Protein 1
Amino acid sequence: MKSAAQIFTQPYHSPCGEMVLGDYAGKLCLCDWANGKHRRRNDQRIQHFFNARYVCGSTPLLQATAKELDAWFAGALVQFNLPLAMAGTPFQQRVWNALLATPYGQTTSYTDVARAAGCSNGVRAVAQAIGANSICIIVPCHRVIGLDGTLTGFAAGVSIKRFLLRIEGVDV
């Protein structure tokens, strides 16, 4: 029987909460809030998608990710340069790629993300795909706000979302 591949994981201590980083085959597949509301579901999806299991351990990619996150939190980095392995359906991946197109320091609405993902009438489905994002900050779901400009749900809480946006100079 062939054993499952491995996803190396390590904690990351951000200024606004504990996170977990994951490396699958040299690509970042996990940068999630340790206590986020979608964490268990995301973990199951990632491990199933890659037919892999989590193993605690550092890798050069995880060390580089921590350095880039440190620089981002310090306001010294606006564009991440990390290889990503996004574990999701083709629709979820279209949504996450639309998030990646949202520039640093700017926000977008769920409606705009739905349009960019080719699903203009699927705002609810887009919101669910955004909630399933397991590469937080780097795939910037924190930049998505309500159409009226209000902060809406976020796996780590709206106060963390506000904190992240303020790092980018967005006052909400």
Protein 2
Amino acid sequence: MAIENVKGSLEYSKDLQSAMASNPLKKETTSETQRQKNIQEAASKIDAKALMTSYVVEFQMNVSSTSENNFNSQNGVSLLGGSALSNPDRLTSILNGLDLNAIGYKGKPLQELTSNEAKALIAEDGFFGIAKTSARIADFVIAGAGDDVEKLKAGREGVIRGYNQAQKAWGGELPDISKETLQKSLEKIDKRLTELGVNVLEENV
């Protein structure tokens, strides 16, 4: 998605080249004032497109980071609620690197949770449960994109990237709770895209 936007911005650069090539500074062709006006108009298109591309890419990166943070937190709590930890060092390392304030968690430090407390947090109505975690992720995308379809698409891709980055951090597939959270997040974003007239079935083939 982001690559397509960058390609699109390159297309606009042709406007400037065209303005300069087709309107040389010759009295018999056009005035200097008109030539400068044409160039400025083309340049303004390039600047606007480049600015929008940068804005969308930055948004996608923020979504990716936020999603990864949510998935890492959810998986960490899920492991804390289990009976055995296969890699406690990795768990500690990832938990120490989480920005819990960024996702609105104000509770007990995760490293200090008991098994029962962790289980409560990933339960159906828990802060790190599927419903609340998917809502945080999807709402972040929807609120940030508004009615901008391209930003919504970029945000959707950012969620998937965040999930994949979390998998890399843990060194393997995330548990079912995170897979379901990803699915619910994408469903909510797709619903918003549909409301804006996008055929999500075609888009996600």
Protein 3
Amino acid sequence: MEFMISAIIFFILLYTVIPYFLSRGLGVNVVKRGRDLSKIAFTFDDGPNPVYTPILLDLLKKNEVKATFFVVGTKAEKYPELIQRMHNEGHLIGIHNYVHHSNWFMSPWKVRNGLKNTAKVIKSIAGVTPIYYRPPWGMLNLFDFMRRGKYKIILWSIMAEDWRTSGGSEKIKQRLANIKGGDVILLHDCGDTLGAESDAPRNTINALKDVLKTVQTKEFTCVRVDELVEKL
């Protein structure tokens, strides 16, 4: 009995905590930032959202900024016009998951099918096959960690904790005040996931109006993730 309990604990650690430590802590098999200190990459998770994604796309277009959207497959199916617009306006579309569930609590087969289904949805709408992947909450399991070659896993070097409304846009601006060259910046264009607040993206967009001006004064070039990591 003790052996069985020990084996189960070992398996759980092997499947979840160890890959998480190696990826989030040590950056093994993932990309957290780029080497080109003249470039930064804004990334947006959890969408598309019918209210906030169009407003965000308008803001990015106005400021001539190219970004990366890690989309949820079921939402991409529901709002294909937003996926098409992202692609038409030059943004990179990556995979977040087919549903916004933690990979820690899904079998390898379910994760694999979710990746395949999301890639199929994006390909059917935009005509491109996504190769960049960010698991929800950055929680990699052993399957993600060992699945090298087909997908490039992108995490982040700076986050604004913008999934809650507390602190408003000022909190977000403060957290993004020290953007450095090579940073991969994690933000959200949808707030209807577990632990988030539905109207939180409004603060993100309002904060970005000032943050993008600051970025321009620092002469950073805002690029897609593939442009930031192309030489890694």
